[in-house]
Every structure is written in C-alpha cells, then in structure tokens.
C-alpha cells in the first residue's frame, strides 16, 4: 500500500501513533494512511489495539505519542465533536438510539441546533435515495430491525458529509441479506470519494469489500496487504502469527438422556418492546450441543432469561434441569443443580466492569470454592482467575485487571472460561463468539464441543449460522418467540434455516428428543 496517492497527500495519515496504559503499549508506533475513497480494513486478533487506534482517530482518547495528518496538515483531535467537524463519522457496534422516538427525531437529536425536523426529513429522503438506505422518517425506532437501526446511524453520519467513515463490526447484527445491502451502500460511498475504515473479524467480507488492510498484532502493524489477493486463512494466520486449525469434533457426541427439558414455556414480553415467548418445547441431552438460530430480537434474550432463572416461569415444570423442576427457582439455585449461563452482554451482565477478574469469579462461583460462610476467599478467587486466564488464553494488561480493561474478545474468553471451568452439567450460552477473533472463536467453539464430548448438555443461542453448523448436533430456529422443530443439524440447510428465521416455514412447538 502506498502511503501517498499519486494525486497528493492521503486523506488521513497516522504517524508513529502510540498509546500506553501503564506497562502496556496498546498501540506501538502505528503508521497507516488512507486515500480518499479507499475502503481500508483494520484487522487484528482480540486485544491487538484496533479499538484503541480508532478511539484516537475519533478524538475519544489522546495518543501518548505520534501525529495525525489530515490532508497533509497536522491536526489534534481532542474530542469526537472536533473529529466530526473535520469530516470523520463513526458507526458504533452498539446503537445509541431512543426507541420511542421516530427515525427523523432520532437523527435530529444527534445533530446541532442548525438542523430542524423539516430539514432532516428532506435531507433524509435525499440520502436514502442516493445510497439505497430505505428508511421511513415517521416510523418509531422500536419497530425497526437491526439493519434498519444501523441505517439510521449511517444516515446520521452521512448528513454531516463525512470524508472518512469508521465502521466497527457493522455486520455482526445483520442478516446475510442486510450485510450484502450494506456492502452496496459502502461501495457507492467509496465511489463518491468517502474513505472507509472497516473493522471486522469476518475475513470473507473484508475480502469482498476492502482494497487494502492493515493488520495489527500486539499493538504493532505486522502487515499491510491487499485482502483480495490473500485467502481468509492466510489473513487469519497473519493476524495471530500462526495457522488457525479447524474445530476438532473428536468422537461423535453420544447423547445420554435429557439434562434440560423445556415444556410449554410461555412468558410475557419483559420490557415494552420485548418479545413474548410462546409455547417453547426443547430438550437438550447430556453429551450434545443444541443450537438455536434466529435474527436478533426474536426472543433469544427472553429465552436465555427464562432458562437461566433471571426471569421465572409461571409453572415449575416449564423448565426441568437435571431431573429437578426449576421453572420457579432463581439462577443461583439453578447453578447449584450444575447449570451454568453465559449471557450475550459481557460487560455489565456477565462481568462487573470495575471489578477485577478475581472478583468477577464470584458471580458464578459464589456458592463454591471462592467464598465460605459469606466471606470472600480472595486468594482462592485470585487462583481461580489465574487458572481461567491460563486455560482460556485470556490476554490481560496485567495479572488481575478490572474487567473493563480487557478487550472485548478477551473478556468473552474469560467469561466462557469461568463457566466451563466449573464443568457444568448444562451450559447455556447466548452469542458465544460475538466480536471475537478467529483464533479465540475457535478456542471457544472447541471448548463447547469438548464440554459436550465430556457428557454435558450445551445450548448455544447464536446469530452466526456458520458457527451453529460447525458445533451443533441438533438445531432449531426462534422466530417471534416461537421455536421451530429441533432437528439434527445434517437435516437442515442454510436456506431452510433462513426461511425459518424469517418465519416463512414456521413449524412450532415440537419436542424432538433423540
Ligand atoms: N482503559 C484501559 N486500560 C488499560 N488497558 C486497556 C484499556 N483499554 C484497552 N486496554 C488494553 O489495550 C489492549 C488493546 O485493546 P483494544 O481494545 O484496542 O483491542 P482490540 O484490537 O480492539 O480488541 P477486540 O477485537 O477484542 O475489541 C488490550 O490489551 C487491552 O486490554
């Protein structure tokens, strides 16, 4: 990749950017240049320093050293407001929208006072048409799909005429069709001269979309490549420094009787815009992985809450774990039966952000070795955290950091490790590898497969169909709070799953034990 285009200076150039957190160099002398209209991927395994670099570029944090040049001129970006004024836009992984407001209102509140609702509505129409971002200005946000919500975020950026748009894992919440639609929009933006910095762990989509890529490892640039000329496997190897193997299935899973039985589970929607569960029937046997596919927002969180005991059912026998009826008992008592739970949201739900990893072991190990008579055994908690860090290759900035100081993927490895190390009889995990790099995703999937191989029942709720086809023995699809039949994975095709996800081939409520 050339640092300077034939026509002059790059749009943006990072020179020797470093960021130090205590002893850790999260970014170490990074050089990177992006030309106008270039779609540039920023790649690297979890903790490589991608978010840190992007936060520096967007004015969220200050670098410890280095310089940012914008069209050849040095700039200092001390806040996102300054970055936006310069021409940077950012679409975050987590949308920051008000559910009750309409599309146009959500856009207007994020803009400066110069924008009134009428101007927003008319410009919204122009941009929607120009970039194929169909949006109805008067629809309330809570009625929209994840793809439509993301369009609002993109339009919000585009209304400010960005010269560089940063997208952080934009397809993790999209269906394959929505992702393809997004790529068409990004291609158009690039053709109009808007540069794009694209962070993703999905290497095939990077190869489809990006013409250049910077690969970070341990805070340093290890390669600058044209991703179209490399295989996804090669790129992954550059990211981690060695080859990533396939998940080994080992001996076929042999199911040995129901560990979880869900019968006629119905539950009203939790929040105003939640999804009610209707007549869910499901069996997970010891020694198998049951996958649950579905588009986000179709009842996955509610199902997780009902299975874990974060929400209680009306009837005790709606959920049976290890032979004990437990629909009306709480999560701690379900853990005592040998069940373990990993929710989707790692920071704030699965882990307490400002507590150290050792303290975070208490969330699910309180009833076991890390506390006695209500007292925390700090040394035992530290030993346990160290064991999890070692077994699950969690990369930490120091021995026992606060959870919020870990990169997203590393925190996910810690949370999954914390549950698996207990050798649960039943593990229920929601989106196990969301935002996790290829190497860490393999480690997590392998751990799930091995756990089932050792005789535990595992339920994996995931939006990632490739993941479910790789690890699950049987699979079902959740759509609008109803579960399809549970069938052996080799009886499903991706197309059939897709139809169920859209609710076109609904088969409900069947209990299919093997
Ligand atoms: N506030 C902080 N204090 C201390 N260390 C931090 C802080 N924020 C990040 N780090 C460390 O900096 C390193 C780089 O983290 P960063 O979040 O930039 O990685 P990443 O490549 O974005 O990872 P992921 O793909 O998991 O999001 C990690 O080792 C992380 O633990």
From TrEMBL:
SUPFAM superfamilies hit by this protein: P-loop containing nucleoside triphosphate hydrolases
Keywords on record: ATP-binding, Nucleotide-binding
SMART domains: AAA (SM00382)
InterPro entries hit by this protein: AAA+_ATPase (IPR003593), ABC_carbohydrate_import_ATPase (IPR050107), ABC_transporter-like_ATP-bd (IPR003439), ABC_transporter-like_CS (IPR017871), P-loop_NTPase (IPR027417)
GO molecular function: ATP binding
Pfam families: ABC_tran
CDD domains according to UniProt: ABC_Carb_Monos_I, ABC_Carb_Monos_II
Record domain ABC transporter: where: 12-243, 260-505
Keyword ATP-binding: yes
Keyword match Nucleotide-binding: yes
Coiled coil start-end: none
Assigned protein family: Belongs to the ABC transporter superfamily.
Protein name: ABC transporter ATP-binding protein
């Amino acid at each position: 990749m050339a640092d300077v285009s034939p026509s002059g200076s790059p749009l943006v150039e990072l020179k020797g950017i470093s960021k130090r957190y205590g002893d850790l160099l999260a970014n170490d002398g990074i050089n990177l240049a992006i030309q106008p209209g270039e779609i540039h991927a920023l790649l690297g395994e979890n903790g490589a320093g991608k978010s840190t670099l992007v936060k520096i570029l967007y004015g969220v944090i200050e670098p410890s050293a280095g310089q940012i040049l914008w069209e050849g001129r040095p700039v200092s970006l001390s806040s996102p407001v300054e970055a936006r004024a310069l021409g940077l836009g950012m679409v975050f992984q987590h949308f920051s929208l008000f559910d009750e407001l309409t599309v146009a209102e959500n856009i207007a509140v994020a803009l400066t006072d110069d924008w009134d609702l009428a101007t927003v509505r008319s410009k919204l129409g122009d941009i929607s048409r120009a970039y194929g971002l169909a949006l109805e200005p008067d629809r309330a946000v809570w009625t929209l799909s994840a793809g439509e919500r993301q369009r609002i975020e993109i339009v919000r950026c585009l209304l400010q005429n960005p010269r560089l748009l940063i997208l952080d894992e934009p397809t993790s919440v999209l269906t394959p069709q929505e992702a393809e639609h997004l790529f068409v929009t990004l291609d158009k933006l690039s053709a109009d001269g808007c540069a794009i910095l694209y962070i993703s762990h999905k290497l095939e989509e990077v190869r489809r979309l990006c013409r250049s890529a910077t690969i970070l490892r341990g805070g340093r640039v290890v390669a600058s490549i044209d991703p179209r000329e490399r295989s996804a496997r090669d790129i992954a190897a550059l990211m981690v420094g060695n080859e990533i193997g396939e998940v080994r299935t080992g001996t076929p899973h042999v199911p040995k009787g129901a560990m979880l039985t869900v019968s006629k589970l119905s539950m009203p929607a939790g929040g105003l815009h939640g999804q009610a569960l209707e007549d869910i029937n499901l069996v997970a046997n010891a020694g198998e992985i049951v996958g649950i596919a579905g588009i986000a927002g179709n009842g996955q969180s509610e199902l997780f809450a009902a299975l874990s005991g974060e929400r209680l059912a009306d009837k005790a026998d709606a959920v049976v774990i290890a032979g004990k009826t437990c629909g009306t008992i709480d999560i701690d008592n379900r853990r005592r039966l040998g069940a373990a739970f990993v929710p989707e949201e790692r920071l704030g739900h699965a882990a307490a952000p400002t507590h150290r990893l050792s303290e975070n072991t208490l969330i699910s190990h309180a009833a076991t070795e890390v506390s006695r008579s209500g007292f925390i055994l700090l040394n035992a908690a530290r030993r346990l955290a160290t064991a999890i860090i070692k077994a699950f290759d969690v990369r930490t900035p120091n021995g026992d950091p606060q959870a919020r100081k870990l990169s997203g993927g590393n925190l996910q490895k810690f949370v999954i490790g914390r549950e698996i190390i207990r050798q649960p009889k039943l593990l229920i995990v929601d989106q196990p590898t969301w935002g996790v790099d290829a190497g860490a995703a393999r480690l997590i999937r392998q751990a799930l497969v091995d756990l089932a191989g050792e005789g535990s029942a595992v339920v994996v709720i995931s939006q990632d169909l490739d993941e479910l086809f790789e690890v699950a023995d049987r699979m079902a699809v959740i759509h609008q709070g109803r579960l399809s039949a549970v069938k052996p994975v080799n009886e499903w095709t991706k197309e059939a799953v897709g139809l169920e996800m859209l609710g076109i081939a609904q088969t409900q409520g069947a209990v299919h034990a093997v």
